[in-house]
Amino acid sequence: MAIAAAAVIVPLGLLFFISGLVVNLIQAVCFVLIRPLSKSNYRKINKVVAELLWLELIWLVDWWAGVKIKVFADHESFNLMGKEHALVIANHRSDIDWLVGWVLAQRSGCLGNSLGIMKKSSKFLPVIGWSMWFSEYLFLERSWAKDENTLKASLQRLKDFPQPFWLALFVEGTRFTEAKLLAAQKYATSQGLPIPRNVLIPRTKGFVSAVSHMRSFVPAIYDMTVAIPKSSPSPTMLRLFKGQSSVVQLHIKRHLMKELPETDEAVAQWCKDLFVEKDNLLDKHIAGDTFSDQPSQDIGRPIKSLLVVTSWACLVAYGALKFLQWSSLLSSWKGIALSAFVLAIVTILMHILILFTQSERSTPAKVAPVKPKNDRETSEAKRDKQL
């Protein structure tokens, strides 16, 4: 991490981790004292508490880096967002697709109830991972043999969610890179499948399970297609912390859950066909550098995240000043050394967070070995054993 970048990242990191630990503490107290009495009330309170942390990241996008998110959707679908439960599926194009989804959830009024299916290791990330666990994110090991029952139980627990929620699922299973695209193209060629150009081949086990167990209480699927214009650099967490802007364009299409096929095999094929359509849509985007088939929707830039970050900054600064006055921490070499140690820990944690989001470090999608075309069904079944 460069010195200039660290000069910005460390203060922001201190603010995020100190305020985040406060949020985690409140969540833990509510989990122990309120959840056993009323899971519904716990979820309503946690929505508000979690947003106090998530809004800091929204501020990073909206006010610090000034990332421009352009949404393309029909008016009816756009107006329903945040008013109903929804399963959200998207291509995984950039390092901050999840954060773009949070921005849209915040605009729709359900940021604190936006959930995701994450790698099991994610819940051990200090502050952010712990908050996700308290917020009932779904954590999987990415092995279908181990995850099938876990996913089923986790999805069923959402049935009595008291407020509209979004559950995000990146069905490609990993973030897009050219190396992963080449592997997907090789697999598609060997199996006689449509050869992808802008997306990876979806891994449908998790999607099929989600549809099967949520069909009765989730009315809609939001099909989101993420694209980065040719004139814009791809957004990353490091660019956000440096205050460097990007442009992200988001195409949204709403599908009624009741209109999906009934059998698991047909639902899996529906998902695969959807990604073929998504690939074609991205071809058109590359040609025109925009999504021209849907009207553009204004999502604005609410001041709420700015107010939250300003409030946290004042509280943390006041608390730190009072603590330093009380402890005389910087009046001795031992205190200075302890302070330097804390700053080093924050720097390391922020570095881990940035590395965790980088696409080149994400787990590659496992692709079955090349087999003759007449073994296509067997090969696809083996490939889908991973989420």
UniProtKB/TrEMBL annotation:
This is 1-acylglycerol-3-phosphate O-acyltransferase. Pathway: Phospholipid metabolism; CDP-diacylglycerol biosynthesis; CDP-diacylglycerol from sn-glycerol 3-phosphate: step 2/3; Lipid metabolism. Its EC number is 2.3.1.51. CDD domains: LPLAT_LCLAT1-like. It comes from the Eukaryota. Keywords: Acyltransferase, Membrane, Transferase, Transmembrane, Transmembrane helix. It comes from Durio zibethinus. GO terms for biological process: CDP-diacylglycerol biosynthetic process. Residues 86-208 form the Phospholipid/glycerol acyltransferase domain.
